[in-house]
Write the structure tokens for this entry.
Amino acid sequence: MIVDVAINKPLWKTLDYEVNENIECSVGSIVEVPFRNSIELGLVLGIKKKSSGQYNLKKIKKIIELSFLNKEQLELLNFMSSYYCCPHGITATLFYSKNFFRKSLKKTYGYQITASLNNSNSEPKAKKKNIIEIFRQKKKISHEDYKKFTNYEKKIINDLIKEGHLKKIISEDVNDSLENNNNIAKDIELNLDQRKAFECVMKDKNSFKTFLLYGPTGSGKTEVYIAIAKQLNQADKQVLLMVPEINLTPQLEENLKNRFESKHVCVYHSGISNAEKKKNYDHVKSGKIKTIIGTRSSLFLSFKSLGAIIVDEEHDDSYKQNDGCRYNARDIAFYICKQKKIPLLLGSATPSIETYFKYLNNNISILNLPKRNLAKSSKILIEQNTGNLESLYKSKIEKLFKENKNIIFYVNRRGFNPLILCNSCKSTINCKKCSVNLTYHKTGNFLLCHQCNYKMSIPKICDFCMSKDLVGIGDGTQKIEDELLKSFVPEKIIRFDSDEIKNQSKLKLTIEKINNLDGGIIIGTQMVSKGHNFPKIALVLILGSDNALFSSDYRATEKLMQELFQVAGRAGRELNFDSEVMIRTKYPGNEIFKHLINSDYSKFLEKNLQERKSFNYPPFSNHVLLRALSKNRKDNLDFLGQALKFAELYKSKDIKIYDIVPCVTEKINGKYRHQLLFQFERKTFMVGFLNKLVKRLNNCKTKSTWHLDVDPKNLN
């Protein structure tokens, strides 16, 4: 028997291997195969009697797992490989990880209380006391839960084991985990609009239909999600609730585990350990898990009985994969729901222009939540940017502190200064590997590249003119924090960015700290704008949003509008709570701010659609980027020149070919980047053309690495 095997290599064809007659093998199986001088994991995509080659075949070394992927998953894999122009072997790695099949992952371990802990009369220190109290309540905790919810106090757990108060237990699953909840909170009664949205989805629960749940931040979309999940779970159906980023999962997970039996809820994303990931994968496959909170990767779980997919914040660019198979998770959710004949619910306060266009063309049913649930709308103020924050301290902040209210400073730049400038020759300090400025980080006192993480100390003189007159330009989160610390105590200030929050444990602790804040300031980047429900936010101050007003990317205004609406939505989410949103800009008369003040996001989308139609930009067409990367510019230009020459053979009304250009950030990590943009009128023509282009490009001799990005989210 001969099998077609796809391995995780940039190969645009499968490889033939021989299987011994006494070994069972099927399509969808995971196998170990020899490849050159190594052993690789592969996926069986086909079985045949004869090989197409005229050479001696190597034999499969081992069958790891029979029929690991089912028929529907294989169909999805083939579609994604074809549509997104990615080799089968690379696309297949979305569906499995080599770590899944390590024997050490078959079992998990945890900790169990002993009688001596219950009989202990000693008075431990605060941290240890808190952990002991958890064990006294729960008796038994998985290692994963201990790490997740206690900031992994390794010394304390080792001391308790040495003292005989705890013992390590090994089992396939520690059922009585810290997360298990015996006191399920009572359901919140849906209002009229929420009830109507819920009933519309449930009416079509046994067929494929796409809905857009559209309402301002704080309108109660999550309650609709929970009602749908509960109803489907009761019918023994699973629900996948997708979020765009890992940092949104803890708050949602806590919410759902207070409302469901927690043993039926799990999270699935790249931030959890391989052991937990494999455990959750198996429990979803068996049907033990009913509700899954996940990021992009959760789409590729093997569901036993999926009843619906909910995509929260459907507009978010984080649903687009930026390496390997460059898929859009929202669009793949659409494919899966169509395949399984189940409903797809997209939720957003600021829907993407593509989704809104589908609604206008009657391809999506809209479910409106027209107003905030119990909360009042925030007052929005647009102010001329004077660059001076001092005036705000006395007029706003101190007053709000006295009322125990909180403030968000939104600055979408981490670090202290975005660039260091020489006042004499006006040159900037740039990364040696990338064509970007180095950012000054006061915490640690170094310059850092935000593209490749190259780090260096601050020079004393300019490399070009030897001047000592070097100054920092622009404001990042660290600088705003530094300014505020001159007037307020550190306990009042929390920085919420990726420099400060490096893991799930730190994220959980920071969110807890914010939830207990009474009269304080949160300084954050985009991390603070997405989905968080922070208490007592009376003022949101937005700084540094002007750059997007003049971007070369035609999507920039849409992204900025979504960002402003989302950040503004963090304010005043409690009952009868007065709040303000203040935007500091050098261009207060810009039309985008008028849409924000009037809360007419739909009108903004309709105007934006008219502009795109005049240029025939998506969603009126489809874009595909061919990008080339090399240490030498000429390699890229020669390769893309060959691609352009081939593409021009197909020039017609169905395709528009733009010029070869360098990317806006031309060099990253030592490699130059150039691109060629194609614009297509019809998807059927696009898929056929790209299939021919890939075959041609595979025969090109080039030193450049290349990839195709279908439906790109970023042209820069």
In short: The two ends are 48 Å apart (CA to CA).
